[in-house]
Amino acid sequence: MKPDTDLERRLREQSERKRRAERERRSLLAQTTYLGSLGLVFVLPLVGGAYLGRWLDTLAPGYSVRWTVGFLLLGLVVGGMNVYLLMRRDAP
């Protein structure tokens, strides 16, 4: 009798775990929204750095892309950190 009750208990636990996973699974809309927000937190600092660098380059006489490249790289680092922190915060 002992093996049957142990088997029943394990089956009950597995079915409950499966039901819980089904309830907690993200919907397609939630996943799409999450990926969109990841893209935004990466791209916005990148674009902002490019615009700020380009504006600073126009203030200097002559042709220079020093500020643009510098702020583009800074935007890349900041965007990467934003994505990392957002994914770490939402990790199970």
What report would you give on this structure?
By secondary structure, this protein is mainly α. The protein is 87% helix and 0% strand. It has three helices and no strands. The protein has helices spanning 2-24, 28-59, 66-90. It is rod-shaped, with a radius of gyration of 25 Å. The model has no long low-confidence stretch (mean pLDDT 88).
Please give the structural blueprint:
Blueprint: H1 2-24, H2 28-59, H3 66-90
**Alpha plus pi helix count:** 3
Which structural category fits the helices and strands?
Answer: mainly alpha
Rg over CA atoms, rounded to whole Å, is: 25 Å
Strand % is under 5%
Number of strands: 0
Q: Could you name the ranges where pLDDT drops below 50 across 5 or more consecutive residues? A: none
Level of helix content? over 70%
Tell me, what's the shape?
Answer: rod-shaped
Report the mean per-residue pLDDT as an integer.
88
Give the structure's gist in a few sentences.
The chain has 92 residues and is mainly α.
Question: Which descriptors apply to this entry?
Answer:
mainly alpha
